[in-house]
Amino acid sequence: MAIDRTVLVSPDAMGQIDKAAADSGIDSFGLMRSAGAHVAAVVLARFPQAQRAVVLCGPGNNGGDGHVAAKLLERSGMEVQRFGMEPKPGGDAARARALFPGDICPFADWRPRAGDVIVDALFGAGLDRPVSGDVEALIERAGRAKTPVVAVDLPSGLSGRTGEPTGACFRALHTVTFAALKPGHLLMPGRELCGEMHLCDIGIPARLIASDDTVWRNHRGLYAAHMPGSAASQHKYTRGHLVVFSGPLISSGAARLSAMAGLRCGAGLVTVAAQPSAVMVQATHLTAIMQRAIRDVAELTDWLGDSRLSGFVIGPGFGDLEKARAYTSLLAEAGQPVVLDADGLTAFAGKTEELAELFAGETRLVLTPHEGEFRRLFADLADDVTLSKIDRARAAARAQNAVVVYKGADSVIAAPDGRAAVNADAPASLATAGSGDVLAGIIGGLLARGMPVFEAACAGVAMHGEAARRAGRGLTAEDLPAHIPAL
Ligand SMILES: NC(=O)C1=CN([C@@H]2O[C@H](COP(=O)(O)OP(=O)(O)OC[C@H]3O[C@@H](n4cnc5c(N)ncnc54)[C@H](O)[C@@H]3O)[C@@H](O)[C@H]2O)[C@@H](O)CC1
Ligand SMILES: Nc1ncnc2c1ncn2[C@@H]1O[C@H](COP(=O)(O)OP(=O)(O)O)[C@@H](O)[C@H]1O
Ligand SMILES: [K+]
Q1: Considering the entire predicted model, what is its pTM?
Q2: Between 459 and which of 12, 223, 285, 305 could a Cys-Cys bridge form, CB atoms 3.0 to 4.6 Å apart?
Q3: What CATH number labels 11-210?
Q4: What ipTM was reported for this prediction?
Q5: Residue ranges of the chain with pLDDT lower than 50?
């Protein structure tokens, strides 16, 4: 059975899985041999011209994988030299070492040569502190010499749990990992430090890996079954009515970006609810999208009596924070899903408990903070360096009873029930003004069409990234909505 490329397993959980595999009768040394063979295969395939394999061996099983790889590389005819330390006695690593006797030199003895390739088998899942000074010096020397690095499991120095380096850290061109991806392979800056990922099956049964883990790489399987259909019997009112709130004249474009994205997602109707100063400028821009002037709380209360309004986006370019809070509390009472973005988030800085109370009960709120907004709302979580971005998003989701889309190059989508997904393949061209407004509109459109909240957020983030890929280089936020229907 093929391995699952979508689950993310923390290094601790991986340790449990190794143990469960051993308990079920699987030979752990066989797993190490398989791991080392995969590493050697990647080195040979990707560096066919290499003159020498510089294999860095640590004291644990990561080092054991290195000894196996070293032996196989030597057998293939390559010059191999090992640096590092002897393994701890008694375990699989010592057994691997015994199969390939010979010198293990001190780190300081390595003199970089043209044609070297480093196999970094110092520390993997077992890294529990910053690397020592001699390793740090070696990392620096390798960086200066531009020696290519193939990392075993993880670049040494990188936390597989958080994706953050614990101190100095290798920057690998390739990382060969086993059985399942770890969060640190996808979370930034880990994703960049790993280079190209090679996820290899070493014979740990999928049934042990699936377990009850609830963190995934964002992928179609999480949401495809919940995507809104397009039955012939539909009319526009059965396809949902999305409302996007516009800010004042000067910042009215953000709402248009959200609204257009929502319409392109297939919402039957989209209305921009405009503050009076923006009505004229919106009227000159909008065609398929409708408009309604909403002056104040009284007018909004009146309109919310229309039960066909099925989803709301508030915050992009909105401006007035007090009004944003007042409107959001009315939307919460209306009982339909709400996407709170940008100024809508800032409006609740220091008032997150109030927000949680508004949206108690069935989850129907999506928060879409970028790094700065997340910090503004959840300073304690943002400052806690022991937490990963996944931990932070999950804690915020739980506290707010909301689905949190913690944006960035490694957007994390988290639900109050603990489900979480890391989106790792959006192009960097999305880092452009207004692209967040488009994302809010996509999620709003899917929610208005009746998609469940976590699934809509996962689908929205994936579609946003895919739309950017299709739009190509040099995209502006305006280009994104046109690519949505094809998705
Ligand atoms: N996932 C799996 O099923 C398999 C995992 N294997 C390998 O096993 C590795 C995990 O092995 P281990 O649990 O032995 O852990 P590691 O080999 O990653 O490191 C653990 C050892 O390094 C020491 N250490 C940690 N951080 C240090 C630092 N900064 N400076 C100095 N010493 C430090 C620890 O005290 C311990 O002795 C994985 O990364 C993978 O490469 C493979 O052998 C095959 C099977
Ligand atoms: N380097 C990157 N790679 C991939 N996606 C990115 C990157 N930087 C930003 N993004 C995405 O682009 C969007 C930017 O949103 P946001 O920060 O709210 O911008 P704005 O306020 O200008 O709309 C988010 O969806 C974020 O995940
Ligand atoms: K390593």
Answers
A1: 0.96
A2: 223
A3: 3.40.50.10260
A4: 0.96
A5: none
